[in-house]
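Cross-posted from the bioinformatics board.
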Amino acid sequence: MRDVAIVGVGHSLFGNRYDVRLDELAWEAVSEALKDANLTVKDIELLIVGCAGGWSAEALPAVVCSEYCGTLPKGSMRVEAACATGSAALATAYNFVASGYVDIAIALGVEKMYESPTPVQIELIGRAGNYFWEFENFGLTFPGYYALHATGYMWKHGLKEEDLAEIAVKNHYYASMNPKAQFKKQINVETIMQSRYIAWPLKLFDCCPLTDGSAAIILASEDTAKKITDTPVWISGIGLSTGTANLSSRDMFLPLEYSGLETAVEAAKQAYKRVGIEYNQASKYFDVACVHDCFTIAELMAYEDLGFCKRGEGIKLVREKQTYNGGLIPVNIDGGLKAKGHPIGATGGSMIYSLTKQLRQEYGKYADSKAQADIKNGRAIAHNIGGTGHYAYVTILSLEKPHM
Amino acid sequence: MRDVAIVGVGHSLFGNRYDVRLDELAWEAVSEALKDANLTVKDIELLIVGCAGGWSAEALPAVVCSEYCGTLPKGSMRVEAACATGSAALATAYNFVASGYVDIAIALGVEKMYESPTPVQIELIGRAGNYFWEFENFGLTFPGYYALHATGYMWKHGLKEEDLAEIAVKNHYYASMNPKAQFKKQINVETIMQSRYIAWPLKLFDCCPLTDGSAAIILASEDTAKKITDTPVWISGIGLSTGTANLSSRDMFLPLEYSGLETAVEAAKQAYKRVGIEYNQASKYFDVACVHDCFTIAELMAYEDLGFCKRGEGIKLVREKQTYNGGLIPVNIDGGLKAKGHPIGATGGSMIYSLTKQLRQEYGKYADSKAQADIKNGRAIAHNIGGTGHYAYVTILSLEKPHM
């Protein structure tokens, strides 16, 4: 297995992007990544496009992005794993490089969700749950799914709505410093508590927005990476797991009782095995994390699913502000899905963009003054979920080369 | 780069499959592949699902197929490359094994096209062309696109409609012997010539049908493959290329002048380079081929794009029946897309299924009496196109291990 490094990263402005087409939005990230790597598009041998699709009339996103970005006639394909699509694209590009098939590949994530009218968006996202039993018969959509997790967690561990609000406060605080974020206003607990219920106990400000955006990650094999950059960021472990879409098929009497996602635990354990650490070592091993906070409860579950703390102790991390810069492990200091935005296919790549910047100590200007001091071991983790754990992808980055 | 072998193949009945759901259809191929490899589902480490999707209410095909086939909690994702989706899934699974990430993976292709009413099918397929300029403004759909290729070829090389009919006659002849084919009736040139025009010069019997179906290919690394089977079929080369969706953007004054697909030539050259042969050696190097005959003209162009003969000489191969068993190079002796059927996501895998059976000498019962004698060098080639060359994937199989 060849070692693979990130040699360039790019990121579009997230938000409502009526101003650009899908392929133009893609180029915003790809061009920035090329510049970051000091490469031209001719150097790219393969383009893997993460795009959940279905929002726009464009049926073949990888084709139009390849053409507009100038990678033709190089190979490409589209990859989809619901909201973990970006991480699936990264894992795919990684394996094409690790195998020796190509030396340089781009994992591009891109999504334009605002091209569909709202009822279509709700229908399309709802179908990504369990279509027949839960969506069609019971009307469950994603706020409802995650509300079930929130009530499960409340019942088990005494979670309060104010605790969830604190997670939104943190992520909006960091988004306010991220020039690429969708929401740049800080908010407070009171505002969140007064916002309307979407699905009890989740309120408007517990939910991430719909977003248009793109992110591009250029990967290179060890020998090639060394020629391209003095600051390679290595991919040292990937874990991926799949679960049933049908929440009612998950065993209610498992230890988690809906207060966590089994597939996230499984993906984390796979990835940790690859870097040789135990599950309970995670908070010491990693300097920073990006986790999948599509709803505030999802970030809380991620703390525990990744082993940053014991079951039920996630609330303590929130109350003690341990996931801010300077805390036990800073989480989503780019604003997260919650406030940076969640353009489905681009979200996984956006996490890798943020973590790469952080590991390279290039992210201080976006975060608070304590951000740079947090990078001690040079290791970061991304946690990207599709559905309610239908997919879980965990990616570990390191400044140290994995196989010495 | 680790060598990767096909250790098991499975294939559903192709046709109108109202009798099964998408996940049940997937299991038809997966269960057969597991039986063929003498493995259980617990042995599978990764499931890559090729599914173009959009035809049914099911938004996350890889999730429901993973659950029904019993691979949970193992990782999965969906891959799409238009009508080359099945080959993209294979290339992805191949690289996850070649890299050393997993030892055993399944590339599953599955599609249920009949779940959409016909106008939706036409809309969805049409959008896979160039959406805005050619589909929306000019009403071009795929029979029209390939009709442009046919008239281009006619003008350049003196093609007759009867020549195209002969390709359909061959593929229906072979499908009549394939128990998994959608159409099992032989047809003659007269019937084809009397069928109605869909887009001149292409008639009803020049066009492949819509199809429901699945195919599954189990891949294993060299060490693992040797434990599983005595008859591994190796993947010895893959080529992939992407082209503009916009036919009007392709240079009319290139040597091909619409009589071939540039991306198919590019993908073939990439794959040939990996096995170390020249472009013009192909017809001698390979024993058999499966090519992308979504329309009869597409098969004719494939002969030349793959270098089986010189430009313009494809007609001669047809007239001399050189692509039947016993000829220069037998092509689509499983019936091809034309008569076996074309379930978009499953087509690439179906080609690999057929070629694996042929190389293993297990395909004689489906083909004519000369079929077994055609396997001399133990090498086969699959040519899978998305759109009108938006994607081209070429896969080379061999009985001999690639890296000795």
